[in-house]
Amino acid sequence: MPPQVWVRNPEILMRAMAVGREMGYSRFLVQATGVTQKAVLLDSGFQEVDRLHVLFRRSTLNLPKVPESAGSARLQRASSLHVDEVIRVDNACFEPFWAMNPLALSEAVAATPRSRFRVMTVGDSDVLAGYAIFGLGGGEGYLQRIAVDPHWQGRGFATRLIVDGLRWAKRWRTRRVGVNTQQRNENALRLYLKLGFELQAEGISIFEPAPS
Ligand SMILES: CC(C)(COP(=O)(O)OP(=O)(O)OC[C@H]1O[C@@H](n2cnc3c(N)ncnc32)[C@H](O)[C@@H]1OP(=O)(O)O)[C@@H](O)C(=O)NCCC(=O)NCCS
């Protein structure tokens, strides 16, 4: 729901959550930027549970170089056959609060009008080393999700996955590509800055209803 709607009338959030509960959802998260949105949520009984950096990379920049160590990995289009492996890698990489289940995965892929979902394997194995989901909408690209299995980190695999998505976003003539990352995720921040993403002044706060 767009913030303009609930900033004027936060009661709408309560109604939306009531409908969600009827549909079987048990957890509700709301994104906020700027002091007004945050103040409205705090006044309405929400609490901040996380903070995200927002970064953008201009598409006029040249594509970053991929390290040779990532050259032998295989990139392929993700299919339904990969879902279990993607969830395994995802759960090995993210804390439970942010880890995805198959429903969240399909929502991430469907979140934008166009998306590119690629998985990475090594040698002849079907075991996934990593995956990335990029999206496209409103003339901008988004890196929705990326994870590399801890066993395969530090070899340039994330760089290769991101360069693939940046090339795709360039082909679609996007102005820029955005990504969000938890403020405490220093490895991801270093990766994005190295690849030419620029940190934006304003981040995103994540809120959920405070326990009553
Ligand atoms: C972040 C992540 C995707 C990086 O994957 P990776 O394949 O190891 O990344 P690369 O090998 O391509 O690293 C490229 C750059 O990222 C930074 N980086 C990545 N991992 C790092 C680490 N453990 N320590 C310090 N810098 C790191 C470095 O700048 C590195 O460049 P360098 O090797 O020249 O120092 C991986 O650590 C991961 O899956 N983490 C958990 C999930 C996650 O945080 N996803 C992003 C959420 S927004």
UniProtKB/TrEMBL annotation:
UniProt-listed InterPro entries: Acyl_CoA_acyltransferase, GNAT_dom, MshD_Acetyltransferase
Top-level taxonomy: Bacteria, Bacillati, Actinomycetota, Acidimicrobiia, Acidimicrobiales
Enzyme class: transferase
A single GO molecular function term of this UniProt record: mycothiol synthase activity
Keyword flag Transferase: yes
Name used for this protein in its record: Mycothiol acetyltransferase
SUPFAM superfamilies for this protein: Acyl-CoA N-acyltransferases (Nat)
EC annotation from Swiss-Prot or TrEMBL: 2.3.1.189
N-acetyltransferase domain sequence ranges: 73-212
Native source organism of the sequence: Ferrimicrobium acidiphilum DSM 19497
Keywords: Acyltransferase, Transferase
